[in-house]
Amino acid sequence: MTLNKNMMNLIVAAFVATIFLNLVSTGHTAEPRRVVVEIRGFKFVPQRPALAPGDIVVWINKDIVPHTVTAKDGSWDSDLIEVGKQWTTKITRGMATDYFCAYHPMMKAGFSVSPTPAASIQTPPNRSGIASTQVPANTEPTR
After folding, report:
1. pTM, whole model, 2 decimals?
2. What angle do CA 36, 37, 41 make, to 5 degrees?
3. Does domain 34-120 have CATH number 2.60.40.420?
4. N or C: which end of the chain has fewer CB within 10 A?
């Protein structure tokens, strides 16, 4: 009976170790976050969220005129985002982080990209005390 109990403990330990090693070796990380940046009052809010590769950012135009979200280096662009519409993109390593509105160049913002897994990053509130908001993971990107 003791041999069977010891054997069972050994099997359970091997099973747990196999699962742990599999998770570590496959680079399993937390689910990506969805972060909302509002366009309002001719500003991007929050102005500089902390993001990680894989995060999804949704820019929602809550202003009175159309805007764009355009990388400073021109490597990515939302095209026109009409009032009440949104644009979504996925953050990647090496992605340009500074952006502006092509129609209103004084509107500038950016984001930082950390190699830290998405779930462990806390986006601090901006100067006005507004933190980024998360939207449900089943939200589909729209234009």
Report:
1. 0.64
2. 140
3. yes
4. N
